[in-house]
């Protein structure tokens, strides 16, 4: 049904009633795909008779991932259909049976294309009451809500206008009387007024400007084709419109990127449609349309919803009359030393303030003042002195300006069908100045936290990891978010719970599990407010735990969330004991697999079926991103960012990210698809770090990533231009910098071995050592050992040779049994040593600590000549230092993930020199094009024919010669004409693209020719774009215009990386990789020819900027 409403664009409504037979549904999916392929905005709603995951079913037989579900998912994802969500009951169908046979499923849904979502951004789907049917009716509403007045927000694209500097400078030049905080707040208010008026009167509507310039460009280009050319004046007008249009597009992308709040894309290319779609999806997901009040009734009244939410959170956050209960709890405490106190309250320096402001994320949503950290950084020369004067006022007066304390509370839904106030997570949006002030306090406090906070707490303390909590748990089988200081204050308060539990254990009131006799007992594990309690299954332990929790809640004001709490019993616990413990604690029993911090805890290895939800979520994410509208570079970057982010997100954060990204991908370019480097790595890393996913599952996931990057779906579409092993190589070896999940699994498993050896004092290492003993090369794990220990034993031979003792005092190193000379202990070497005499010897017995040298005679006597030479070659520390285990490749006590990845990787069979390509000062999309040319995998007609694609091999421009990779960008007559029209024509000896690659590589290495190299890279890229436009769109510009556009973009690339900072270039291009190329500087020696120069260890390097500096001491020889 085609629906046309007034002057709006027509759209298609497809009412669905699918068959219960999946073979008949397959026919429906094919017909619907053909309808969707026509490109009209489309809404599909009705009974699909299929679900997509276990979360859409309750009751009956356990959920299994069957072929019919996979086909339904592929239909939705390959056609880019977005599930519009719902409010109301979670399921839409019931079989109306009783008992265990009663089944609920979500068979009915409303899905739409991205075009329909953009036409109706305020859409809403409700599940109406089920009365006369076994299905719930769907109500799809497209009515727009009443617009609300949005608060002021500093727009990032204003930075493109020099006039914005004048506005800020004018506001800051107004004299203001008062203290430093008041002057700062007043001048921000003046700036806000001026920027708002300037935006309204001068900047105007950039969307209208884009439409106007497009009309002018179309008019002139049509005139050029019809009249055979343009005059110089008309050509200048066309260039002016093209430049203005490109500038407006940059501003549009910056605007939508800022509003989308997408933080995980750090490089890629201009994907305005993606950011626009992200903004619409984010607004739709965060819109609260219905809420349940205290009376249990659902309300859709726009006036009542804020009142209900305000009442709920006000009651939660308001302290009850009488305050907390006066419970007398005597706990051992740890005090702060005088030195630590002095460090906490020391005066704030100018450098400390500036570093703090620069450490805040520039694009984070601002508070009520509307100014993000980016504003203060960019206009620091104007506002910096006022900031430096205002922040120290708090540390000297202990009072904070009311304007700085104002906070927006934004509610983020925790679940898709959020209807209760408790279903929303409150997030505080603080002002930048408030965040900077509290972060200074947080940074100072963080240095002393490891000593103050109990080792059971794994969150927000440096050197502690969430991985340790999960690994320890596997051996056993209310926060103001947005303020940097709040997490640290929370764990300081929560430490009272840890000390109370440990006191109960030490007084033998609480009986807990010990892995082996004599080992340190572990009664609990904390990660922020997630608490795992471990104790014997008896009434006494339950009573002690109940008392401690009640006392802690009474004195802290915190409460236990019983709806999210559960008890897991051992199999030998009797039913009577279970019931009594459940009654004492008031918590239900755990159903199904116990999950801690998002990881299933199991005493066995994971199987493929255990990871079905992981595969399901990744498949849903990748294929739901409409690969045909996402560039390859975008897909690669996406895979990169998401796969690397997951360790930093909470479980809800990961779920939210999955939901949000699922609907966004319809809008990214192929450069967008390389963004896969950023988004695809997110899900597996967290699971790989804390559990060992079967290799067969990882191979399946890699196949999904491979299809996603090359734009392949349901067995159709893109071609694999290069092997996956090549793509996963580092960029310096010609790859795209992706990481193989199989290699990553090996590296993360090896990391456990390295941490076990290098961090012997951590809680996890101590537990594992007490339970299993030492880990040596060749150590074999038993079948009764935990999966973690078995994986560690399997990789001991690979990792342990890289770990050795760094000699200090020598008292901790056993001469025979420790690795300090070679990768193996001396006792394992085939040498003739006096083992009986060396028994019990320490390395310090072979050292003359007074003289600072080896006891050579004794060493040769007991070790033999050959081994003695190796020992005597080792350096002796100049002063007494403790012995320490180090990772030999770096000499550090901590191992880097990069080192482990190199250790577990294999040398590729095919490689090219590719690092220079990604260091070029060009747009990442151009770099990707050069990368394809360097590998010889540009999809020309000749190459496609060799891959089995039915296509003529002749060039569609000259129609005379086979279109090879050398012909298309270099040898085609039209390509040669474009080259000759440019300021950088090709040398006559240039015959192949490999010659071009060599020329570009040489140009990038020379500061004299790098601009010319950039220009040639852009020319080759625009020749390819012109070829594609002619074949697929039937339009071509004149060769001169193609050359002009390439020259204009090349000059822009050169200007941006030369004149602006890295952050400004990222604002303009949406990329970081294009501006990391090194900058050349000519250095000359002005010293006298008589004399000498000395260079020592006087060199430093800044990782942030990449700058280096050094000192050369010149000593002139005096004349005689």
UniProtKB/TrEMBL annotation:
Presence of the UniProt keyword rRNA-binding in the record: no
Pfam family, one: RVT_1
Keyword Endoplasmic reticulum belongs to the record: no
Superkingdom classification of source: Eukaryota
Domain Reverse transcriptase: 476-600
Cited InterPro entries: DNA/RNA_pol_sf, Endo/exonu/phosph_ase_sf, RT_dom, RVT-Znf
Record's keyword terms, sorted: Membrane, Transmembrane, Transmembrane helix
Transmembrane annotation, as ranges: 642-662, 674-697
Domain spans labelled Reverse transcriptase zinc-binding: 914-979
Protein name: Uncharacterized protein LOC120104120
């Amino acid at each position: 049904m085609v629906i046309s409403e007034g002057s709006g664009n027509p759209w298609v409504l497809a009412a669905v009633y699918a068959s219960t037979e999946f073979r008949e549904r397959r026919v429906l999916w094919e017909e619907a795909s053909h309808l969707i392929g026509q490109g009209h905005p489309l809404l599909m709603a009705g009974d699909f008779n299929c679900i997509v995951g276990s979360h859409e079913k309750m009751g009956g037989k356990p959920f299994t991932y069957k072929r019919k579900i996979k086909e339904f998912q592929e239909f939705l994802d390959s056609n880019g259909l977005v599930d519009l969500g719902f409010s109301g009951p979670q399921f839409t169908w019931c079989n109306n049976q009783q008992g265990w046979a009663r089944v609920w499923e979500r068979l009915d849904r409303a899905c739409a294309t991205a075009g329909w979502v953009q036409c109706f951004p305020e859409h809403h789907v409700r599940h109406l009451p089920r009365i006369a049917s076994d299905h719930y009716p769907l109500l799809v509403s497209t009515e727009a809500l009443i617009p609300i007045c949005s608060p002021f927000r500093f727009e990032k694209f204003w930075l493109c206008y020099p006039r914005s500097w004048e506005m800020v400078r004018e506001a800051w030049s107004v004299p203001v009387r008062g203290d430093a905080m008041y002057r700062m707040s007043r001048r921000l208010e003046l700036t806000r007024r001026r920027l708002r008026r300037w935006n309204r009167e001068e900047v105007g509507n950039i969307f209208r400007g884009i439409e106007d310039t497009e009309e002018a460009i179309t008019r002139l280009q049509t005139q050029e084709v019809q009249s055979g050319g343009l005059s110089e004046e008309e050509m200048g007008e066309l260039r002016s419109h093209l430049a203005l249009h490109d500038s407006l597009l940059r501003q549009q992308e910056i605007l939508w990127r800022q509003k989308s709040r997408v933080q995980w894309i750090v490089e890629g290319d201009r994907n305005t449609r993606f950011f626009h779609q992200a903004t619409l999806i984010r607004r739709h997901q965060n819109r609260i349309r219905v809420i349940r009040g205290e009376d249990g009734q659902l309300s859709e009244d726009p006036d009542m919803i804020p009142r209900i939410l305000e009442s709920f959170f006000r009651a939660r956050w308001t302290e009850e009359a009488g305050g907390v209960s006066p419970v007398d709890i005597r706990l051992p405490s740890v005090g702060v030393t005088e030195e630590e106190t002095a460090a906490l309250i020391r005066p704030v320096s100018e450098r400390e303030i500036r570093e703090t402001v620069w450490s805040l994320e520039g694009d984070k949503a601002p508070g009520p003042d509307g100014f993000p950290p980016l504003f203060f950084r960019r206009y620091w020369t104007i506002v910096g002195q006022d900031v430096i004067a205002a922040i120290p006022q708090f540390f000297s007066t202990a009072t904070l300006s009311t304007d700085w304390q104002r906070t927006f509370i934004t509610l983020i839904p925790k679940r898709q069908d959020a209807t209760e106030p408790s279903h929303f997570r409150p997030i505080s949006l603080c002002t930048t100045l408030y965040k900077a002030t509290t972060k200074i306090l947080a940074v100072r406090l963080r240095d002393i936290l490891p000593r103050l906070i109990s080792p059971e707490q794994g969150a927000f303390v440096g050197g502690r990891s969430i991985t340790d909590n999960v690994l320890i748990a596997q051996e056993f089988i209310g926060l103001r978010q947005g303020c940097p200081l709040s997490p640290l204050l929370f764990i300081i308060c929560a430490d009272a719970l840890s000390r109370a539990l440990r006191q109960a254990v030490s007084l033998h009131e609480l009986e807990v599990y010990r892995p082996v006799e004599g080992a340190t007992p572990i009664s609990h594990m904390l990660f922020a407010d997630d608490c795992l309690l471990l104790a014997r299954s008896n009434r006494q332990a339950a009573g002690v735990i109940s008392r401690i929790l009640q006392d802690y809640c009474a004195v802290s004001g915190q409460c236990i969330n019983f709806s999210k709490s559960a008890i897991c019993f051992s199999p030998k616990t009797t039913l009577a004991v279970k019931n009594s413990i459940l009654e004492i604690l008031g918590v239900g029993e755990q159903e199904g697999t116990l999950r801690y911090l998002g990881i299933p805890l199991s005493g066995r290895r994971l199987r493929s079926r255990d990871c079905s939800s992981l595969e399901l979520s990744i498949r849903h994410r990748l294929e739901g991103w409409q690969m045909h509208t996402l560039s390859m570079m975008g897909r690669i970057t996406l895979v990169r960012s998401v796969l690397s982010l997951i360790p930093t997100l909470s479980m809800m954060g990961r779920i939210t990210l999955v939901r949000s990204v699922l609907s966004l991908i319809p809008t990214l370019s192929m450069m967008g698809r390389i963004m896969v480097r950023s988004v695809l790595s997110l899900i597996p890393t967290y699971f790989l770090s804390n559990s060992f996913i079967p290799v067969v599952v990882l191979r399946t996931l890699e196949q999904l990533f491979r299809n996603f990057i090359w734009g392949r779906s349901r067995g159709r579409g893109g071609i694999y231009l290069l092997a996956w092993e090549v793509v996963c190589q580092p960029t310096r070896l010609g790859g795209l910098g992706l990481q193989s999940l199989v290699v990553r699994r090996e590296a993360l498993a090896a990391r456990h071995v390295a941490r076990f050896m290098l961090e012997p004092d951590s809680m996890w290492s101590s537990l594992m050592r007490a339970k299993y003993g030492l880990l040596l090369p060749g150590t074999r794990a038993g079948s009764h050992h935990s999966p973690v220990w078995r994986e560690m034993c399997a990789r001991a031979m690979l990792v342990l040779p890289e770990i050795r003792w760094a000699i200090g005092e020598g008292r901790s190193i056993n001469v025979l049994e420790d690795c300090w000379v070679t990768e193996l202990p001396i006792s394992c070497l085939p040498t003739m040593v006096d083992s009986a005499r060396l028994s019990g010897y320490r390395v310090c017995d072979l050292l003359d600590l007074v003289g600072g040298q080896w006891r050579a005679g004794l060493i040769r006597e007991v070790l033999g000549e050959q081994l003695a030479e190796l020992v005597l070659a080792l350096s002796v520390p100049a002063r007494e230092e403790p012995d320490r285990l180090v990772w030999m490749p770096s000499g550090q006590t901590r191992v880097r993930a990069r080192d482990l990845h190199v250790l577990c990787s294999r040398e590729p069979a095919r490689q090219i020199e590719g690092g220079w390509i990604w260091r070029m000062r060009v747009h990442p999309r151009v770099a990707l094009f050069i990368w394809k040319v360097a590998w010889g995998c540009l999809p020309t007609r000749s190459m496609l024919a060799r891959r089995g694609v039915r296509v003529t091999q002749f060039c569609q421009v000259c129609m005379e010669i086979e279109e090879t990779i050398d012909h298309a960008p270099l040898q085609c007559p039209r390509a040669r004409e474009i080259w000759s029209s440019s300021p950088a024509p090709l040398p006559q000896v240039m015959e192949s693209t490999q010659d071009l690659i060599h020329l570009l590589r040489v140009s990038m290495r020379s500061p004299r020719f790098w601009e010319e190299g950039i220009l040639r890279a852009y020319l080759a890229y625009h020749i390819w774009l012109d070829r594609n436009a002619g074949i697929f769109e039937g339009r071509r510009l004149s060769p001169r215009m193609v050359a002009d556009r390439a020259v204009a973009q090349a000059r822009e690339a050169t200007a941006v990386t030369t004149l602006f900072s890295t952050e400004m270039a990222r604002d303009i291009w949406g990329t970081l990789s294009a501006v990391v190329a090194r900058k050349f500087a000519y250095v000359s020696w002005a010293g006298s020819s008589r004399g000498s120069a000395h260079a020592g260890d006087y060199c430093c390097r800044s990782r942030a900027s990449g700058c280096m500096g050094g000192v050369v001491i010149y000593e002139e020889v005096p004349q005689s």
